[in-house]
Amino acid sequence: MGAGKTTIGKELSKLLKCSMYDTDVLIELEEGTTIAEIFANKGEEYFRKKETEILQRTEEYEGIITTGGGIISSEVNQQLLKKLGFTIFLQCDPLQMVKRIQNDPTRPLARNKSEREMINLYQSRLPYYKESADMIIDTTNLSIPETLKKLEGCIQELELGNN
Ligand SMILES: Nc1ncnc2c1ncn2[C@@H]1O[C@H](COP(=O)(O)OP(=O)(O)OP(=O)(O)O)[C@@H](O)[C@H]1O
Ligand SMILES: O=C(O)C1=C[C@@H](O)[C@@H](O)[C@H](O)C1
Ligand SMILES: [Mg+2]
């Protein structure tokens, strides 16, 4: 959460001239309300069910799919991520992410949480992020343009390796 998936995904899609879909945005569009409202009125379990449905449906989409930070929390999503495409994990020092998102009202799991609780959530997810990734990009201390440049370089290397 707060690693920059949506921000970087959007920029990368402009650079690569391809489509970009964000699972959080798709959920909000389909539900006609915000994630904060979904969590408040229907609960996290409902949100997670919707998230899996939307992730499954991205099989039909071409381009960049950016996901919610908790997408790897379920085994079914982990399997889907492996199956659906090439998965990139934007790794970042958790303290940097906490600073960006702590108490952000749009992120229900970041509200009223201490720094320690946020870091614990990240640590509990970390093995699954790593297992689900085809490529890991460390973005710690990188600005948005620097992250984009690093990502672009890694993708180019990969394309050269595949040719
Ligand atoms: N490398 C970066 N350096 C500084 N700020 C950044 C960086 N990447 C993203 N941000 C900022 O951090 C905030 C969170 O970014 P973003 O919404 O892209 O994260 P996310 O990974 O999509 O989070 P979520 O898992 O909640 O969807 C935004 O305000 C964004 O501008
Ligand atoms: O890390 C998480 O569990 C979340 C991250 C966001 O992208 C949203 O999907 C939602 O706020 C939950
Ligand atoms: Mg996002």
From TrEMBL:
Q: Name one GO molecular function term.
A: magnesium ion binding
> Which processes are annotated in GO (biological process)?
amino acid biosynthetic process; aromatic amino acid family biosynthetic process; chorismate biosynthetic process
InterPro entries xref list: P-loop_NTPase (IPR027417), Shikimate/glucono_kinase (IPR031322), Shikimate_kinase/TSH1 (IPR000623)
* Enzyme category, top tier: transferase
- List, alphabetically, the GO terms of the cellular component aspect: cytosol
Location within or outside the cell: Cytoplasm
Which top-level group of life is the source organism from?
Answer: Bacteria
Required cofactor names: Mg(2+)
**Record note on quaternary structure:** Monomer.
Question: Per its record, how is this protein called by name?
Answer: Shikimate kinase
From which lineage does this chain's organism come?
Bacteria, Bacillati, Bacillota, Bacilli, Bacillales
